[in-house]
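PROTEIN DESIGN WORKSHEET
SECTION A - STRUCTURE
LENGTH: 184
TOKENS:
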């Protein structure tokens, strides 16, 4: 009886078995693992939460704005007076300039939302408080700078805050900083 054929067959079966076992062991490394994906998403969510907490508790070194700046600029420009000159800026800052030294971004965001008096009609937002437009503009600029520092330019961001004090009524405030959020 010839035993060489049986030995070669045993070797082939052992080889196929070992290749199959190694394939089963290495398969998760080649497939997009849902556990790995959920871990990446969790880390991103935690990073976003931490960044938001840091931003809301930060106090700007100097945050200033001018009440009714856009309205007064328009009136002065129509009258032929430059509000951008040194004298115009000094008068504006003295009469209408406001500086915030000790408020956190969380407090400033809350004040901005409460002072907008934003009315939404027909898909458009109408701002009824014209005095705080510069406040809103400068707050958005400062928040954008701070978030870029916190995130070190590694991430894109969108911070949206809404305040509707009366349920069912399209009245309140809205602050949106950053690019448009991605479609989900």
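SECTION B - SEQUENCE
RESIDUE ASSIGNMENT:
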């Amino acid at each position: 009886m010839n035993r060489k054929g049986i030995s070669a067959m045993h070797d082939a079966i052992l080889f196929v078995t070992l290749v199959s076992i190694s394939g089963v062991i290495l398969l998760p490394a080649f497939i997009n693992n849902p556990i790995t994906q959920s871990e990446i998403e969790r880390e991103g969510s935690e990073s976003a939460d931490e960044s938001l907490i840091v931003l809301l508790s930060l106090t700007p070194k100097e945050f200033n704005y001018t009440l009714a700046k856009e309205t007064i600029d328009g009136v002065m420009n129509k009258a032929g007076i430059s509000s951008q000159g040194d004298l115009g800026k000094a008068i504006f800052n003295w009469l209408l300039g406001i500086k915030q030294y000790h408020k956190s971004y969380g407090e400033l965001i809350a004040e901005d939302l409460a002072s907008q008096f934003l009315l939404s009609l027909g898909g458009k937002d109408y701002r009824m408080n014209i005095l705080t437009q510069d406040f809103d503009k400068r707050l958005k600029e400062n928040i954008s700078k701070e978030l870029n520092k916190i995130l070190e330019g590694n991430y894109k961001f969108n911070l949206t805050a809404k305040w509707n004090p009366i349920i069912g009524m399209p009245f309140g405030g809205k602050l949106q900083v950053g690019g448009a959020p991605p479609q989900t």
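SECTION C - NOTES
The first strand starts at residue 63 and ends at 66.
Strands lie at 63-66, 97-100, 118-121, 124-127, 158-163, 171-178.
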